[in-house]
Amino acid sequence: MPLVPSSLSAGFFQAFPTVLPAYSSAGPTSDRNPSFNADDPVVSRLIALYLPSPAPAHVVSHIHDFSHRVLDHDVLQHTVNADTQPPTLHPLRTFGQANTSTALRTSPGWRALKIIQTENGVIGHGYPQPPQGSLTATTTASHNLRIHQFLTLYIWAGASAVTTCPMAMTDGAAVLLRHQLTSNRNLSDDARSVFTFAYERLVSNDPAQAWSSGQWMTERSGGSSVVGTETVARLLSDTEIAADAANGRAHDAHGNALGPWAISGFKWFSSATDSDCAVLLARTEKGIGAFFAPMRRAAGNSSAPNASVMNGVQISRLKEKLGTKAVPTAELVLSDMRGWLVGEEGQGVKMITAILNITRLHTACGSVGDWRAGLAVSRAFTRVRSVQGNKPLSKNVQHIKWLADETLLFRAATNLGFFGVALLGHTELKGPRTKADDLGLLPSKKEDAEALLRLLTPLMKYACSLRAVEGLRACMESLGGVGYCENNEDDGILNVAKLFRDANVNPIWEGTGSVMAEDVLRALQVKKKGSAELERLFGKWLLGVLAKIRESGKGLFDKQIRTVEERYLNLKRLIQGKSEDELLWQGRAILEHFDAIVSGVLLMADASVDGDEVAVEIAKRWARRISPGREGVVNFAKEIEMDRRIFLGEGESAVSAKL
Asked: pTM for the complete prediction?
């Protein structure tokens, strides 16, 4: 037989991998295809741990349908469009006048993705619906609303083109306004009306009504620090307010009264420049304050009816970034932007903390959501790829072991992030008892749950975002050269490189690892209280959960529990008696101790729900990983088989919880 050369159209072509949806439910819903299998067992396990049994049917149905929806051709085409057609700036009109109405232009894909995420509740599912009247009428829920919301985010992240970024800030703004509306008795009638109008739109699932919000803190002097804030807010005089009213400029684009403060300055980073409103920091004579402002205001009497212009906001330039290409990140000039004071003057940093805790949880779960999408591609590729002649890659024990180890890290990080989500929902609305309650994961006292969430949120943001970058790099490598390419063909479903680019912002955004370490130390008040606050906020919870796991496991995790207890003792020794400089020097080491301990507890709790063999093995492998003296492999053949089950899911038993 003569040798036949390959050509453009002849020779070997790799079979295209089939990327599976994250979750499939066995029950009937509006869109069922029994040929689909679920790629990610973590979704089912989180439902079993944090939602009541049986889980609410509408939640299960939505998570199933949305898991399939994010893989649809039209959605993925929007993702490619948004990433390859970044926003553009058009500051001038035809004859040179400033363009005060349509200077920013985003891609059709970006706008379509924002609609899809809104109608699927990436924000709204975390709040009672409909939002009208829910602020005072709702104290209980049929389930932890935040778990449903963040599972939606987790499934959506990989296809979102980072439209999730403004959604994180939208969620934070909603929490801030909700707090003002329910606890600030000094709100004026106008402010209450404006805040209520905005809140109901920030949490709406209706794209025709929903708003998004910006969060503008960063200035040229500061990065994550706001001490050097140079933006200034001044209280307008009655004469100035009357002049705006006389000119038809006293209201925003929706007819709501504009605030009595005029805000001017320069914001160095703003990642939601196409938003409907913003929460921002500005300096007053009494210190740094937090302000809420609409993005657009009425154009005035000389303009067409209902015309609107930017509310004192000018885009100086758009940022050019490594990733998040679709996000309209900009530098902004503010000139007498009309806004409302949130809380009291001088208390802006305290007010903004409510937003930071929310956005950091979004960062954590969005990061592992990107990682989930990368691992789904890696699994799909492994199943169809052959190497070394014609040997299936799925039979390569070294490859499978490597990615089983990566999956272990992924499951630890995902459980860590969703524990924060569960705590958040637990502190907001009362719900029915769950397996997490039975295991003592969620403190019964609201103040204890809030303190634990405050302590661990920086850890979750740090660990999940950093691990996801490392994990997505491994996912790229697992595809070989294809993984390094920007694969926008075939709906871009194999574009792990894009996920990696986008994920790199998360260890930086909302505070670097060093900032997170300082925040944990601040919560512990080590300088004043030594290790006493650690024992009060964390130790009591930890030992209580370990006791529950020991009791339910009947000896299954005795060795692993001792490993976690040993790490906790090491953490106490690391903190006790140290100077402030010594603690800062060890800041990231302290975070790593917390990560090892909390993830170890959560993986054992996950396995305790049903005794699933793979979940048990993952918990034990994590304990070996964090133990100073790691054990060797006892049964090589069993390890290889378990590697396959951990990474590829083959033979993995189903979660026994009723879904």
From this structure: 0.95
